[in-house]
Design brief:
12 helices; four-stranded mixed β-sheet; Butyryl-CoA Dehydrogenase, subunit A, domain 3; 3 domains; Butyryl-Coa Dehydrogenase, subunit A, domain 1; alpha+beta
Length: about 400
């Protein structure tokens, strides 16, 4: 499991008691309940409903929701550390948590008092866990402003038609936060709606047979004449895009944390194997190539931690940190890809076998450069912020 003390001591960063507690709670649960069956879940694709429910009992489903409102009241640094702990054991479960926390944050910040009581309240009590965040569509993954799902006003309701893709927890979610076009083209025409499970006109597709993170219940949502009460509109009509953007920075820091936990697990597996495996009469760690691989990986991991924790602290200070959160997500996910690949190479042929943890980590890491904004999109965001500042 991830040794936070060793990581943080290298970075010379002090943590608060609350941040340390968030990490230790997540780490202890991950070690006890997630890691032992992670390979089995990967093989079967079995959704970890029981484990997610237990995490909700620990407050891990509502980390950003203030304690005064019934949530855990964990800051962004604590959240990133908790995500790293869970991600080091089971990336599927970490992704489920990330999606649910994103929805909880949006409901807490943009929901009306009535919605907080009716929708968020039962969720905080663990009665409606997990939930899903449905933004991506078949023709507009990264270009969210181009979504085509429609929401037509009809009396005291909206009628939604369209398809959402790659929706985490879709097959098990109690409700979905769905973004649809209610008012013409462009970002200003998008609205956000809560749609409960079982609503007529809502059909959940089959679970995707994915390369990695196979237990996260990813599926499509099909909306055909799906009638949603106007009371389920989150925020103002036409304000859905701004609602989505308000949570993206926090979401990117969470995926950075998840990726770092996964990469740290891979690093530990690779370093451990290299110390035991012998070739040409020597341990692999005695070869200069192995030493360079480990040195480069450790350096990039530490740099990723610094970027991720910087972004988290800026968010905690009230800064939008648009470029910094994109940098954290971009660098951490690409570092994870490089580190996992290097550690698999150290395993040689054994790294290609499902009998070794590194094979699962390799597959789980790949999607982190795609979801929550692709690496290409993160570079665009960073460049725009730079040009806005200096040009």
């Amino acid at each position: 499991m991830l040794d936070l003390n060793r990581v943080i001591s290298r970075l010379s960063i002090e943590l608060t008691e609350e941040q340390q507690l968030a990490f230790s709670t997540a780490r202890d649960f991950a070690e006890r309940r997630l890691l032992p069956r992670a390979a089995e879940r990967d093989k079967s694709g079995h959704f970890p409903r029981e484990e997610v429910q237990e995490l909700a009992g620990l407050g891990m489903h509502a980390m950003w929701v203030p304690a005064s409102a019934g949530g855990a009241g964990i800051d962004h640094v604590g959240y990133a550390l908790a995500m790293a702990a869970v991600g080091s054991a089971c990336a599927s479960t970490a992704t489920i948590l990330a999606s649910s926390n994103l929805v909880a944050k949006i409901l807490a910040e943009h929901g009306s008092d009535e919605q907080k009581a009716r929708v968020l309240g039962p969720y905080l009590e663990g009665e409606t866990v997990p939930v899903s965040f449905a933004l991506s569509e078949p023709g507009c993954g990264s270009d969210a402003a181009a979504l085509t799902t429609t929401a037509r006003a009809d009396g005291d309701a909206f009628v939604l038609d369209g398809t959402k893709m790659w929706t985490t927890s879709a097959t098990h979610a109690a409700f979905h936060l769905v973004f649809a076009r209610s008012d013409g083209p462009g970002p200003e025409g998008i609205s956000a709606f809560v749609i409960e499970k079982g609503t007529p006109g809502l059909t959940i597709g089959k679970e995707e047979d994915k390369m990695g993170q196979r237990a996260s219940g990813t599926a499509a949502l099909h909306l055909e004449g799906c009638r949603v009460p106007a009371a389920n509109l989150i925020g103002r009509r036409g304000g859905g895009y701004a609602v989505a953007l308000s949570a993206l920075g926090a979401g990117r820091v969470g995926i950075a944390g998840l990726s770092l936990g996964l990469a740290e697990a891979a690093f530990a597996a690779g370093a451990g194997y290299a110390g035991e495996r012998r070739a040409f009469g020597k341990a692999l760690t005695e070869f200069q190539n192995t030493q360079f691989v480990l040195a480069d990986s450790r350096m990039e991991l530490d740099a990723s931690w610094l970027l991720a924790l910087r972004a988290a602290r800026l968010l905690d200070g009230g800064d939008r940190a648009v470029a910094e959160t994109s940098m954290a997500k971009l660098f951490a996910t690409e570092t994870a890809g490089r580190v996992v690949d290097r550690m698999l190479q150290l395993h040689g042929g054994y790294g290609y076998s499902r009998d070794y943890e590194i094979e699962r980590l390799y597959r789980d890491a790949r999607v982190t450069r795609i979801y929550e904004g692709t690496s290409e999109v993160q570079r665009i965001v960073i460049a725009r912020q730079l040009l806005h500042t200096f040009v």
